[in-house]
Amino acid sequence: MKKVVNDADEAIHDIQSGMTLMLGGFGLCGIPENCIAALVKKGINNLVCISNNAGVDHFGLGLLLQNRQIRKMISSYVGENDEFERQMLSGELEVDLIPQGSLAERCRAGGAGIPAFFTPAGYGTEIAEGKEVRIFNGKPHILESALTADFAIVKAWKGDHYGNLIFKGTARNFNPMMAMAGKITIAEVEELVEPGALDPNFIHTPGIFIQRIFQGKNYEKRIEQRTVRTKSQ
Amino acid sequence: MKKVVNDADEAIHDIQSGMTLMLGGFGLCGIPENCIAALVKKGINNLVCISNNAGVDHFGLGLLLQNRQIRKMISSYVGENDEFERQMLSGELEVDLIPQGSLAERCRAGGAGIPAFFTPAGYGTEIAEGKEVRIFNGKPHILESALTADFAIVKAWKGDHYGNLIFKGTARNFNPMMAMAGKITIAEVEELVEPGALDPNFIHTPGIFIQRIFQGKNYEKRIEQRTVRTKSQ
Amino acid sequence: MLDKIGIAKRIAQELKDGWYVNLGIGIPTLVANYVPFGIDVEFQSENGILGMGPFPFEGEEDPDLINAGKQTVTLRPGACIFDSAMSFAMIRGQHVQLTVLGAMEVSDEGDIANWKIPGRMVKGMGGAMDLVASAENIIVAMMHTNKAGESKLLKQCTLPLTGVKCVKKIVTELAVLDVTPEGFKLIERAPGVSVEHIIKSTEGRLIVEGEIPEMII
Amino acid sequence: MLDKIGIAKRIAQELKDGWYVNLGIGIPTLVANYVPFGIDVEFQSENGILGMGPFPFEGEEDPDLINAGKQTVTLRPGACIFDSAMSFAMIRGQHVQLTVLGAMEVSDEGDIANWKIPGRMVKGMGGAMDLVASAENIIVAMMHTNKAGESKLLKQCTLPLTGVKCVKKIVTELAVLDVTPEGFKLIERAPGVSVEHIIKSTEGRLIVEGEIPEMII
Fold first, then answer.
1. Percentage of chain C modeled with pLDDT above 90
2. What confidence score (pLDDT) does residue D217 get?
3. Is position C150 annotated as part of the catalytic site?
């Protein structure tokens, strides 16, 4: 089991132009910052990126968009990003919008060997166009297919040499199911620990899904909406 | 949120003859011992029980079988139980055998609002009889439907007043997905703790799936196959 | 006429003890501030929280703890965190008793449109399509008319749909309305608002039966 | 001729560094004891373990820690525990590189039967149907003939199937055979076993090409 690599550059060395990538995160929370930076540096393009959001103008996937490295985004929500909107409305960027729950389940299905499943989400909307409809318990459902990727790139809080991962707070989000769905899955972690340091009872993502892991550095963890209350409240 | 009940008798008071129950556990590991005892005492019958196994001759679901309270078992493996075999071969007991992974996924699907999904398991076998077959990526799959139950009964290690659960070791097994699939889900726990006592980051089953919870007692935790090595090895 | 807080307060009256509730972005989020005394509800955030608490005190923001609106939040005791697949398992599996969300348009059959204005605005549906396709109980919180003064309660939606025949109740600055097989049914008037005003502001089929009481906020 | 331990040792030679491996009950379980030096494999137990270790020392058995054969086991450092849905997500999603299991019959097309004898024995398929339908690499460990001396390597299985066209390799007390489109292909003989003996013990199509080497155990 030789999963540990030195850094993001080594982890992504064989990702090539035109490939399909899954990237964990919700907004800017739990995104693989180191790998995104390495992809920007590497400069490959024509990428298909599956990610719930598309980052903001100068951070997260917004960096890859700005650099025109993404050909197509598969997401559920893409607000908060002017450059994205510009590229989409001008037709430079292909966009496939998917209901958030269907996106999550399609990634899980991809990892779990389930090629397709029925869900009520999107029935009667343009999302259902061209999709099989079937009634279960009197309620119409549409058939959704699994999603997989050449590479899945996830960010965890801690991970061990076997690739076992734990996440912190809502930085978990899409990371666990995308980890399952990559042909090769790269995990960047804030802290890389020895096997045995994590409690086997409380692993969020079993190491079997992870092919490469490294300890990232200089996490910015930008906050999109800093909302607070004052002590007097 | 009034989920805490006093004991197994109160938790199962409205389970009636003819109902469909899901019961967590793998072999005798992680089974809801208190609730099974209460069901035996209550004496209702004609139950349909969904459980990976059927207990052994004088413990676990074997107690309900012995007492002739079960009309039908839905399981993946039912060895180790002479009374079961007798009732099945004599036609007294209806048995639906399901591949273990399909059983787990069908329970999860039932809890997750996914009425049906495709799986390769069982294609070309008698399990596939009457089921829709479809090819994905050149490989035949069969359509399996969700399972739900009038009551799901699970056993956890610790739980809080909101119904959040954590499991210990392989006593987890089918408990989390069955917890999701009960119209009413009862959790018996070895230790009932105050809200806030469990780390929110490491909850196995979110409380939203649990309607009733109580602290069980006198757990026997029988071992089916006591296998050991000696220190000299 | 209600302000946004008034709408939130009125919706909060619909909450029942023990419910799990998903609140959308905007007015729905405000509902959490007006939970009636003695009622214990848990708020679900679809990015992976049950038991969401208030905003953190200044200086205590955690970038790894946000809600679905990407706002920094806190956890209540007894909260739990989970991944997106589990979150939508809860939603799709109808374990969440109430969804409150905003809308651009609602039809008198309960169709809702809130995610796209073709050629102009395409932010995406986020979790809204899963929520409206799954929840038994969907309340829409919105203004009765748009900025141009046109009704948002229509015979048919003109924008791309988010879901069909799913909205159960609408609370606007003017009224509370149920969606019935016969169309919108006026249940309550906002303080100082006349039935005529509501009739004039509603394009879809509207049922007005008997005396319409004024809301008590 | 090999004994059960010999079969397990021969199968252990197939292991590759970094593989995740699921071992069935019986002979397959023994494979874990003969992992070649320098090879690091992780054993998956479908009831929810990755990184299964040896049996516990006497007095250290934990009823909450068993394998799929319901035997008390231990965990290796770096192990992890998960639920049954996650376990079969790993299996069905082809994240487990090798499955080793027993069989009552195997056909020369790679069909396998190992879960039911109609009217006599119906213990259930457990996880076997998921495993054989999913794994890329399936090795069957079994005796070449049954107690009546009849071949278990058949043209067609007579018992209800567990899976179709899935077995890749068979290791018996007599031989190692690959399953090819043309039938069983003899790869190695067990020590002291003649090719004639193997031919006589095999009912299905058998390919014998050139000199068949004796196994090195």
1. 94
2. 87
3. no
Tokens found for residue B168: 């210990």
pLDDT of A10-34, one tens digit each?
999 999 999 999 999 999 999 999 9
Number of other CB atoms surrounding residue B193 within 10 Å: 16
Q: Which residues contact A129 (CB under 8 A, 6 or more apart)?
A: none
Q: Are A119 and B114 an interchain contact pair (Cβ–Cβ within 8 Å)? A: yes
Q: What are phi and psi of D129, to 5 degrees?
A: -65, -40
Q: Is the ipTM of this complex over 0.85?
A: yes
Closest-CA distance of chain A to residue B204, Å: 8
- Cβ–Cβ contact D214 with A under 8 A: no
Of D45, D123, D134, Cβ closest to residue B78: D123
- How far is C-alpha B227 from the chain's CA centre? 25
pLDDT at B233 over 70: no
Give residue-wise pLDDT tens across range D74-101.
999 999 999 999 999 999 999 999 999 9
pTM of the model: 0.97
Q: D77 and A206: CB-CB below 8 Å? A: no
Q: Which residues from B are below 8 Å from A when comparing CB atoms?
A: 105, 109, 112-120, 134, 136-137, 141, 145, 166-169, 201-202
From the candidates C14, C46, C109, C203, give the one annotated as an active-site residue: C46
Residue B232 pLDDT grade (very low, low, confident, very high; cuts 50, 70, 90) = low
With beta carbons less than 8 A apart as the criterion, state whether B116 and B134 touch. no
Interface probe, candidates B114, B139, B147, B198, chain A, greatest A C-beta count within 10 A: B114
Residue D88 parent element (H or E): helix D84-92
- Enumerate the domain spans of chain D: 4-30+96-207
> D159 burial class (0-12, 13-18, 19+ CB within 10 angstroms)?
middle
Q: Quick one: tokens of B115? A: 């009425």
Q: Which two tokens stand for residue B140?
A: 């035949």
Region for D155 from its dihedrals, namely left if φ exceeds 0, alpha if ψ lies in -120 to 50, beta otherwise: alpha
pLDDT < 50 regions, chain D: none
Q: What is the pLDDT of residue B231?
A: 78
Chain D residues near residue B102 by CB distance under 8 angstroms: 88, 129-130
Across C55-78, average pLDDT:
96
The encoded tokens of residue C91 equal 């939603």
- Give me the mean pLDDT over the C156-170 stretch: 97
Strands in A61-204 per DSSP E: 70-75, 94-97, 116-119, 133-136, 139-145, 149-160, 165-166, 182-193
Q: In this structure, what token pair is assigned to residue B16?
A: 């009636």
Chains sharing 3 or more CB pairs under 8 A with chain C: A, B
Could you report the per-residue pLDDT of C113-141, keeping only the tens digit for each? 999 998 887 889 999 999 999 988 999 99
Cβ within 8 Å, pair A100-C55:
no
Domains for chain A: give ranges and CATH numbers.
Answer: 8-115+147-215 (3.40.1080.10)
Residue C134: list chain A partners with CB under 8 A: 120-121
CA dist., res. B203 & res. B104, Å (int): 19
The nearest CA of chain A is from the CA of D90 a distance in Å of 6
The kind and range of the H/E element at A101 are: helix A100-112
Task: Give the chain D residue nearest B177 (alpha carbons).
Answer: D85
The sign one gets for the Cα dihedral B56, B57, B62, B63 is negative
Collapsing DSSP to helix, strand or coil, A20 comes out as strand
Looking at CATH, the fold of the domain delimited by C4-30+96-207 is given as: Glutaconate Coenzyme A-transferase (3.40.1080)
pLDDT at B163: 98
pLDDT at D121: 76
Contact, C41 vs C122, CB < 8 A?
A: no
Helix (H) or strand (E) holding B23: strand B20-23
User: Which distant-in-sequence residues (6+ apart) come within 8 Å of A42 by Cβ?
Assistant: A9, A12, A15
